[in-house]
């Protein structure tokens, strides 16, 4: 939510905005629902006005897999950074009681390029309309194992991304998150989900083999795959992303392609 307080009668906003609904609540609050950037002039008769921006097309991407160590936090942080650098304000919700995304943010020398908050209670789906206000994209970093949190983070989402490492163990273990997605789809018909292959060994066919093995789940596999790259662990040590430490690397290029594909799937 973005708020402007003004003592003048005219407010000028340059924001991603097409006004869809205007409604007044109480004396001083004007709520504006917005979708695309444009210049708005708002004339008001109020001496003080709180203007709240709510993006009606906020995309909520939830990175989930109850299997530990598959790259949920790594992908959630990097997707958030790519989206923040190309498409407006991003909120990263750390839904993992381990607090890895918060640790990452704390290790930084400067502010992260997106907002990081902790919501590690199974109320994410209930809180999300409020939490997401003013953000163009919300990314949720899911927990390993904790089913009630994962369930809440999946129901909150528009698009669930399931990172998976190219190993049969990961293919089998994906059943748990796939079951949660199927359960959530009963309540949320438009819920989308995709597998994202992570830690693929470059120049091997293993990514393709895993994609084939995953086909029995009837969930699409992203074309963009992320290879095993030491740059991810190195950048995490200083609370950075590969977009900052090695911006022209294959790791950064792969991540940008993956985030772009997610936007296309999410909006498709
Ligand atoms: N593509 C990659 N190349 C190399 N290392 C990677 C890659 N992706 C993740 N890692 C490393 O693997 C480890 C686990 O990654 P990460 O913490 O993102 O997984 P996670 O699924 O969030 O784990 P948890 O289930 O414990 O939350 C980290 O040390 C991370 O740096
Ligand atoms: Mg994690």
Mean pLDDT: 83
**Silhouette:** globular
The tally of beta strands, per DSSP, is: 11
Beta content: 15-25%
Category by helix and strand content? alpha/beta
Radius of gyration: 20 Å
SSE series: EEEEEEHEHEHEHEHEHHHH
Distance between the termini: 26 Å
Unreliable stretches covering 5 or more consecutive residues = 1-54
Largest sheet: 6 strands, parallel
Q: What portion of residues is helical?
A: 25-40%
Tally of alpha and pi helices = 9
Order of adjacent strands in the largest pleated sheet: 8-7-9-6-10-11
Bound molecules: adenosine-5'-triphosphate, magnesium ion
Descriptive report:
The protein is α/β, with parallel strands linked by helices and 268 residues long. 37% of the residues lie in helices and 22% in strands. The protein has 9 helices and 11 strands. It has helices spanning 72-86, 100-106, 124-131, 147-155, 168-187, 206-214, 230-237, 242-245, 250-267; strands at residues 10-15, 22-25, 29-34, 38-43, 50-55, 59-63, 90-94, 115-118, 137-141, 159-164, 192-197. The strands form 3 sheets. A 6-stranded parallel sheet has the order 8-7-9-6-10-11, with helices on both faces. A 3-stranded mixed sheet has the order 2-3-5, with no helix packed on it. α2 links the parallel β7 and β8 (115-118). α4 packs across α5 (168-187). The longest helix has 20 residues, at 168-187. The radius of gyration is 20 Å and the shape is globular. It starts with 9 loop residues before the first strand and ends with a helix. The model is unreliable at 1-54 (pLDDT under 50). Residues 72-73, 96, 100, 141 line the site of magnesium ion (MG).
